[in-house]
Amino acid sequence: MGYRVAVVGATGNVGKEMLNILAEREFPVDEIVALASRNSLGTEVSFGDKTLKTKDLAEFDFTGWDIAFFAIGSDATKVYAPKAASQGCVVIDNSSLYRYDPEIPLVVPEVNAEAVDNYKNKNIIANPNCSTAQMVVALKPLHDRAKIKRVVVATYQSVSGTGKEAMDELWNQTKGVFVPGQEVAPKVYPKQIAFNVIPHIDVFLDDGSTKEEWKMVAETKKILDKSIKLTATCVRVPVFVGHSEAINVEFEEPLDWQEAQAILREAPGILVVDKREAGGYITPVECVGEYATYVSRIREDSTVENGLSFWCVSDNLRKGAALNAVQIAEVLGKRCLKKG
Length: 340
Ligand SMILES: NC(=O)c1ccc[n+]([C@@H]2O[C@H](COP(=O)([O-])OP(=O)(O)OC[C@H]3O[C@@H](n4cnc5c(N)ncnc54)[C@H](OP(=O)(O)O)[C@@H]3O)[C@@H](O)[C@H]2O)c1
Prior knowledge:
Elements: E1 3-8, H1 13-24, E2 29-36, E3 44-47, E4 50-53, E5 55-56, E6 67-70, H2 74-86, E7 90-93, H3 109-112, E8 124-126, H4 130-146, E9 148-157, H5 164-178, H6 211-223, E10 229-236, E11 243-251, H7 257-266, E12 270-272, H8 284-287, E13 293-301, E14 307-314, H9 318-335
Parallel strand pairs: 1-2, 1-6, 2-5, 6-7, 7-8, 9-10, 12-13
Antiparallel strand pairs: 3-4, 9-11, 11-14, 13-14
Helix pairs in contact: 1-9, 4-9
Bound molecules: NADP nicotinamide-adenine-dinucleotide phosphate.
C-alpha cells in the first residue's frame, strides 16, 4: 500500500524534478496529482512512463491526501501550505517560508533525520536552501570527528536556483551576445549573467550581507549545530544546473587531509573525486542528474590551526531541492506514516 501524493508547482524546475525522483526511487505512490497555477491547467507533465494533466492548486482539496511536496514561491506557499496541512496532508515545503520557525523541522536526512518526527507540530516540514543542503551533508561527518569551530564559504550558484525564467535569461543573453542588435537586457537578474558573475543572491540586509548568505548561516545552525560560526559570500554564475562551493573549515581538533578524505568516502550521500591532477575533481556539469554531493580538492589550510579546505558540488535541483524533499518523505514514511 502506498501514499496519495500531491506535487505542487509541478510545472516548475523543482516540481518536474520531484516527479522524476519520485518515479526513479519508486516512492510508494498509490495516487499522484500534479498541481500548479490556473495558467497551467491541463499542462502535461511526466511521472515515469505516465503523463499527468496539471490541476489548479486554488481549487484543490487536500483532504485524504497523505503528502504534498510544495515547490512554489513563498507568497503562494503562505496561502496554500497551511490549508493543505489543516486538511490533514503533511507538507514538505521547498520555499524559505517555514525554515526558521522553531516549531517546524528543517531536515537534511543525512544530518538530522530524527527531526522529521516534529512534523506533528504543524504538519509541515521545511526543506533547506540549495546551497545549505549540499554543504551540511559534507560538513556533518567532519564535524562528528573533529568539531567545527568556523566555516568560510564562497558559493558559485547556477541560474536554475532562481527558477525557469532565469534559465531562459541566461540562454537568451548568451545567444544575444553574439548577434549584433539582439542583446538581451537583464530582467530576472540586476546585471548581465551571460559571461559574467554576480555577487548578489536574494535581497540585501542592513549589515551588507545578502539574505542568501544569512540563510546559509541560520540553516547550518538549525540543522547541524548552533555553535558553528559561518560566513558566506554567495555568487550567481552562468551555469544552468549545479551549485559549487569553496569551503574552508577550522576545527577544534586536528584533522589531516587523508583522514578527512577517508571519512568523506564513507559518509552517506557523498562521493569523493579527488585525484590531485588535471581533471581529477568534479565540476557542475558533471553532477547534473546525479544524487550525490561531490567533494574534491581536499587539502589542509596551514594559515589557521586545524584548517581544511575543499570543493563541493551538487545538482541544486536534486540534493538542493527535489531529492532532499523525497528523502524526507522516505524518512517520514519509515518513522511516522507507516502504510500497509
Ligand atoms: N531551484 C532551486 O534550486 C531551488 C532550491 C531550493 C528551493 N527552491 C524553491 O522551490 C520553489 C520553486 O522553485 P522553482 O525553481 O521550481 O521555480 P519555477 O521553476 O519558477 O516554478 C514555479 C512553480 O510554482 C508554480 N506557481 C507559482 N505561483 C503559483 C500560484 N500562485 N499557485 C500555484 N502554483 C504557482 C508555477 O506554476 P505555473 O507554471 O503555473 O506558473 C511553477 O510550477 C521556490 O520557492 C524556490 O525558492 C528552489
